Amino acid sequence: MIVLRIFIKKHILLAVCGGIAAYKSAELVRCLIKKNCDVRVIMTASAGKFITPLTFQALSRHPVQTQLLDTEQENAMGHINLARWADKIIIAPASANIIAKLAHGLADDLVSTLCLAAECPVYIAPAMNQAMWHKSITQNNIKTLQQNGFELIAPSEGILACGEFGVGRMSEPSIIYQSLINSSPASDLYLKGVHLLISAGPTREALDPVRYMTNRSSGKMGYALAQAGIDAGAKVTLISGPVALSAPMGVQLIMVETAEEMFQAVVLAAKNHQIYIGAAAVADYTFAVQPQKIKKQQSSLQLTLHKTKDILASVALLPQRPFVVGFAAETHELVRYAQEKLINKKLDMIAANWVGKAEGGFDDRQNALHVFWEKGSSQLPMMDKKDLAVQLITLIFERYQKKYALKG
Ligand code: PMT
């Protein structure tokens, strides 16, 4: 079954504040327009020092407002009208100054006044120096805004405009776009009608009746994907290895233990699903199980391991294959190995993550992904696995739509 998402023209109001990252907001406008959104732009006075209103006017095809009281505009699209017009407001970049103003209910310029007057969801994509971001006063302001219903699109880590390294880079336009589109109400159940199959968690390979081999997967990434799928309206089947998590409500859960059991369950279910995401950490090797407990005897013990069946590659070879998304967990040469797996296993997409580092990968609450497909890639920076899952599901659905739209 092919499900194509119909985009209803959304009214997005972009508020640009002063900061080097303002140039990225031009890309955000392009991104939104491409996705059939109607975009209006307002700017603070300091934003105009980094990028001209003309750029945004040309991209959005609407005049850009910079003044709170503009006699001409007040007759047409004054700040109250504009606040009512918007389905969503995004402040990008959001400077420490506007964050502080909004947290305290100030309304002394166009952006702060309009946000105070707004009744629609307001998103903030902060960009600032890492020390400013980490200051408790800024963090308290962010908390206040979140408690008051503002949505945070967290800044990422990297080299900042000032040359320092740390958290403070504005999120990439594609991430901001996805957050804006994803967090839509029920009308945006874009996976409605799609049957999504996800494998999660580790497998356990028994050596004898008392011992087994496993890995560090907690299942958090796969379970977060299942939740994101449910939230987007999909019918989700989750095939899980042994984990200490409860399955999201509405998910059809199938618990397995070994790689062979996971293989059987996934291959059987794959025929009835449109998308398969292999987020499980499946054992590559297993033992020939010993019927009795192996007794301690010699100073060393040699064990023979046998290769398990590759689930992803097998699903990709099914005559009526779903759209197949793999993961790659690597301790080195992440990009090369991920791209090899994409090709060798005949996948539609692969999401690569570092494992064995201090942050991200196995068991951590957070993760970052480098996602590849035949002619493209996208980087999703370090964030909570729940947010990451929402963004990955969106990306997968975009590619899925493209593949089947192309095939007609
Ligand atoms: O569970 P968490 O603690 O949240 O951690 C998340 C994670 C790190 C486990 C997850 O993000 C992840 O990377 N999952 C895949 C782990 C893995 O086994 O990667 P791999 O590079 O060894 O395998 C590549 C792909 O082949 C994976 O999609 C895997 O599911 C699949 N595979 C592997 C072996 C096998 N026999 N059959 C398979 O289908």
Describe the overall structure.
With 408 residues, the chain is α/β, with parallel strands linked by helices. Helix content is 34%, strand content 24%. Strands 12-11-8-13-16-17-18-19 form an eight-stranded mixed β-sheet, with helices on both faces. A five-stranded parallel β-sheet has the order 2-1-3-4-5, sandwiched between helices. A two-stranded antiparallel ribbon has the order 6-7. Strand 1, helix 1 (22-34) and strand 2 (38-43) form a beta-alpha-beta unit. Helix 4 (79-85) packs across helix 6 (110-117) and helix 5 crosses helix 8 (136-147). The radius of gyration is 24 Å and the shape is elongated. Ligand PMT binds at residues 201, 217-222, 259, 278-282, 284, 308, 310-312, 326-329, 341, 353, 355, 361-363.
